[in-house]
Every structure is written in C-alpha cells, then in structure tokens.
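for the writeup, i need someone to sanity check this before i put it in the appendix. the sequnce is what the collaborator sent (i think, or maybe the updated version? ugh). structure was predicted straight from it, no edits. if anything looks off just tell me and ill rerun, i have time this weekend
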Amino acid sequence: MQRIASWSAAAVAAMVGVAPSSGAEARHETVPQEPDSPNASVRGQQTPRENLQTTAGWVKYEGNPVLGGQYGTCFDVSVLKETPGYRMWVSWRPRQSIALVESKDGLRWSGPPQIVLGPRKETGWEDDINRPVVLKREDGYHLWYTGQAKGHSAIGYATSTDGISWKRRSDRPVLRPEQPWEKVAVMCPHVLWDAQTRLFRIWYSGGEQNEPNAIGYATSPDGLRWTKHPANPVFTPDPNLAWEKHKVTACQVERRGDWHVMFYIGFRDEDHAQIGLARSRDGINHWERLPANPIIRPGENQWDHDACYKPYAVFDGQKWLLWYNGRHGALEQIGVAIHPGQDLGF
C-alpha cells in the first residue's frame, strides 16, 4: 500500500492561527482529523513520512479536496491573499462560468460558489468561460480568462473594482491562436504587471483544444493589445523526462528575488498529469527544472488518482499554499498542498 503523508486539520490550523473547523463553513462536512498527531506542526513538531505523492518538502493537506464534490467539477483557479483571508476565482464546469469563493485560511471555503462571469454565446467564442487569472493593482482587479466555442479557445479581458462585478473590455478575444504551434487554442493565462517597464506580461498555453501543448509569452501596455514573443513557445516538454514528455501547460509564474519561478503541469500522456517547478532569470529563456520534479503527484485510489492539474501557489510569509485540481475519473476537485518556508529547493 502506498504510504501517504498529509498535514492534519489540527496541524494546519496551528500554522495559520485559527481553530480547527467543523467544516460547516465551506464543504458542509467534517474536516478529517489525524488522531495520532493532534499537535503536529509544519514548523517541525512532527515530520511527515516520505511518500510517493509529493517531493521537495511539499505535503498534501489531509482534508483534501477543499472544494468540489456537491458542486460538480471545479477546476483551474486563481487565488489572491487579501485581508482578512483569501479569494479564489474558480472554473465551474456545470455552470460554464467563473465563480468566486472566499476563505479565512485557504482551506475552508465558502459555498456555494458565486458566479461572477458567465458565458456569452452571442459573441461566438464564449460558450464556455473558464481558466481565469486575476491580478490586483491600485486601479482595481484585472481578469484574463479563456473563452471556448466550436472546438477553439481564446483569451478575453475584463476589469472590476471589487472582484465581483466584471466589465469585459472587448467583445473580441485579446489573444487568439495565430501561429502554427498554437493550433486551435490559446488558454490558461497567467499575468504579471511590470511596474518598471509599464507592461503586462502574460504566459499562456497554446496548441490542441483538449490539452494545449506548450507555453508562450507576450507583453501588452494595456491588457488588450499583445505582442507575442518571436521565439514562442518559450517552454516546451522535455522529451527526456517521462512524466512531462507529452505536454507542458497551464503555468503560474511568480517573481522571487532575481528569479521567475514557474509552477506548471506536465503530461506523460493525454490523461495523466503531475505538477512541476522551473525557474528562469528573465521568465523567457534558459529555464531550469527542479531536479525533484514532479513535486505533486496523483494519489492511488484517492480524489486525485488520475491527474494533478493547474497549480496556483501563494507564499503567506511562512509557508506556500498550492491549490490544484485533482481528477479521479470524470470528476475534478480542488485540493491544496503545503510547503513550509520560502525556499523551494532549487
């Protein structure tokens, strides 16, 4: 039997400084406890066992999944840490929409999800809305999202003053598949604002509709008009790594000191995926993969048995919280993995 390491609800509650919840706040069920280590702490009171599901110091939360189940498939999220807690914009497949949930600790989420951006079939490219990224600046919230219709995917743009009521900035996609490597789809945007150059920077996935193949890069002065990098795609599968040789996609890029750190999905084949880490000085060239990849792997006969998709990580000053969607059969749900400290192991 595969050994499982996971942080108990009591351990995580000790980390984040809240009392363990009965679970009624979010999932309307009891959050599992770990009876043999009620005082376990991510700071080292108890060291989780080594296991095959995670590497490089990451540990799955014992209360996973934290969102999904009764709400159907929830996938591909974007998370912001805001006082007094967290806000998550989630792709909600049964409603073909982007929805918002909130949490005090990143583990117990409000429900049901609140739809904040829905489909618009009249535009011809937004039958299904999903895969968001939300960026907050002094002028408000900025959202880039994937619109899907007729076997194609493209990226749209909207803004908001509160993260709930969104105004689309164009009836047309701001990024669409145009280059040969992009085939029929561009999707899974992740955007940073560069205050020095006054440019938005986007990393996006391009290729096939079911799962895109590689990651491209573009810049924009206004979030609407984008210039794609001439050397796209900037991140492609490594054929020498069995776990990601098929495709790499759906990345999140964060600035950490002098580095750009990328969390991404690697596919060994169309149906099986895991999560890896890479870094680059400029976010474009010379990506270095973490030797311990993949850092998050499926758990046998568990909620993420078949695949671990779309990471989104936040460092809260003491630890990393990484949300991802796991799939078992046809159902995808959201779980979280935790990494104590800032050093990711490069």
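The chain is about 0% helix and 45% strand. Confidence is low (pLDDT under 50) at residues 1-5, 16-50.
thx in advance!!
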